[in-house]
Write a structure and sequence with these properties.
Helix content: 10-25%
Strand content: 25-35%
CATH architecture: 4-Layer Sandwich
CATH class: Alpha Beta
Number of helices: 4
Order of helices and strands: EHEHEHEEHEEEEE
CATH topology: Purple Acid Phosphatase, chain A, domain 2
Distance between the termini: 27 Å
Radius of gyration: 14 Å
Strand order of the largest sheet: 3-2-1-9-10
CATH superfamily: Metallo-dependent phosphatases
Amino acid sequence: MKIVVVSDTHMPRMSKRLPTVLRHELADAEAIIHAGDWTRLAVYEALAAYAPVYGVIGNNDGPEIAAKFGMRKLLTLGGCRIGIVHGHGAALRTKTEAHAVAAFKEERPDAIVYGHSHIPVLRRDAKSGMLIFNPGSPTDKRRQAQFSFGIMEAVDGKLSARHVFYPDKG
């Protein structure tokens, strides 16, 4: 199962439309995860034209998005349990990952997807083997060298992930 993973789209302020490279990957996606900071429900509608969308709210999302999505979500895709949270609420952005992991300490999912920092992260926890994944941002790279989003593959309970990096959001 191909899962396209995005976060921190901040649309339309940071981009009027989804980047071309992202739209190309969405074309054969079986599911889409958005880890918050959509800023407009139109982003959900654009993504939903491709595949089922699962998401959470971020700190820049208003009441319209809050009414549709919760603060955290635990779902099963391709036999893998995936926790989704934006990650805001940590006192420092350097603590965003720890805050995201703590949100699911009781459930112990196979993976945690988070956003907020706009910093791409892909690692496995040495003790639990849990995949920890921040896709970065497809439209607002901040201090990162490139824009990014993620691709997860979930097959028979096995989960892998990778980033897609690109220089411009056109």
